Amino acid sequence: MTTLADPVPGGRPGDVERAAALAGELTGRGVHGVVLAYVDTAGIGRVKSIPTARLASAAAWGVGMSPVFDTFLANDAIVTTDVLGSPDGDLRLYPDLGQLVVLSGQPGWAWAPVDRITQEGEPHPGCARTFLRRIVTDAAGQHGITFKAAVEVEWTFAQAPTADGGFVPATTGPAYGATRQVELGDCTADLLAALAEQGIDVEQLHPEYAAGQFEVSVGALDPVAAADRSVLVRQTIRAVARRHGFAVSFAPAVVAQGVGNGGHIHLSAWRDGVNLHSGGERRYGMTAEAESFTAGVLARLPALTAVTAPSPVSYLRLKPSQWAGVFTAWGRETRETALRVITGTAGHREQAANLEVKPVDLAANPYLALGCLIAAGLDGLTSYAALPDEITGDPARLGAEEAAARGVRRLPVSLDEAVAAFREDAPLRAALGPVLADAVIAVRQGELAAVQGLDDEQLAAAYRWTY
User: Fold this and answer.
1) CA separation, residue 206 to residues 170, 333, 361 (Å)
2) pLDDT tens digits along 375-416
């Protein structure tokens, strides 16, 4: 279970004793080290690892790591804000023992997400996991609302990268085809086994559209745990694939043309165990609150893309008529709108109804993405925002006048446009706080500067093996 309390020097109540017991158990299972993981502003997973015997010490006093990584770029260059990017200072990484998992795909290792605090014991304002936990906690306290969330994970299996970083898909069978499943069946069977051993409930695993591409969908959890799970699933996929001799890429666009890798987010709001997206009197069973929540997300989508599609290469994926959801529109089971309202099958709707956010990829920090989506939705809920008419079919077919009349706009076509929209969205920046909001802007601008002058092929190559 996710730990909702901030860490403190000396350890959260009971954590040191719990960590000591866990260390003994892990050692008995042949686990020699624990990976301490978080995700930076650029969406890169960063880690430190400790010997298993040091787990109790980490629970009490944390593990040191520089705050400079909050302004690292995907290529490891460093940008700065007024408070971040300096070589000065230190943070303490505190493992969430409730999310510690023995890694089936990496024998000898366990894994745990971390929260970061300052040496003075204060929550680090640049910690994305702490930000999401605050958003979730405030929603429960102020509105009595909890959330369930899940992140779809799409990736591409490839042969080992060529000397020039090129890409050769591991299989080229038809989209969603049986051929591809057979050709990679040994690897994907081992993946399913590893995920099951790690306690991850998989709903489906299937070949996707692009060459070598697969998708795994997992069960929904509270948002912090769902973000943790997204990071863990990717670590597991990479480890299992490597043991079978494959490389994997989670990049939004592995090649310049064609369908890229998404990271769609599923999100539902609940109160007192009741799903607000089902059983209501509004459209498709939504309650008034669920409609306003959806309207809040819809209204802020242009600014949200700076967080959900945060890389220059994200915009090679965000193209019309490729199910990427690039228009400010919603529809029931409409895969071309940015927001897909899922009602679920009759008889299962009370559990299954949710909102799918499509313009999201796996370059996004999942903690930032979920926190910002929830903040946008709550803004709509508290302001009783009205949800416009739904769109059916492909919004790209609408003429300019009809699209304008129906409020259908193209989402930003570049990261530069997304950053401009983010700058203008004061409520979204306020939800993040000035430190995180400034880090988002600085890192996105740094990414743009790093790839200035590259054509689409060069852009895809620059990020192909980064994510």
Assistant:
1) 15, 19, 18
2) 999 999 999 999 999 999 998 898 888 988 898 999 999 999
The whole-angstrom separation of Cα 83 and Cα 268 is 35
Q: Which residue's structure tokens are 């089902």?
A: 278
Q: Kindly compute the dihedral angle of the four CA atoms of residues 117, 122, 128, 132, in this order, to the nearest 10 degrees.
A: 130
Written as six digits, the tokens of 31 are 């686990």
CB atoms within 10 A of CB 204: 9
Rounded Cα distance between 271 and 174, Å, is 43
The pairing of strands 213-218 and 45-51 is unpaired
Backbone angles phi, psi at 325, to 5 degrees: 70, 70
282: number of Cβ within 10 Å: 15
DSSP 89: -
Rounded-to-integer distance, Cα 192 and Cα 446, Å = 38
Angle between the N-to-C axes of helices 128-143 and 366-382, in degrees from 0 to 180, rounded to the nearest 10: 30
Q: Is 108 helix (H, G, I), strand (E, B) or coil?
A: coil
Instruction: State residue 208's pLDDT score.
Output: 92
At position 89, the amino acid (one-letter code) is G
Label residue 332 by pLDDT band (50, 70, 90): very high
Question: Is the distance from CB of 458 to CB of 312 less than 8 angstroms?
Answer: no
Token pair 């769109």 in the structure block, residue: 391
In angstroms, how far apart are the furthest CA atoms of the chain? 68
Helix (H, G, I), strand (E, B) or coil at 168: coil
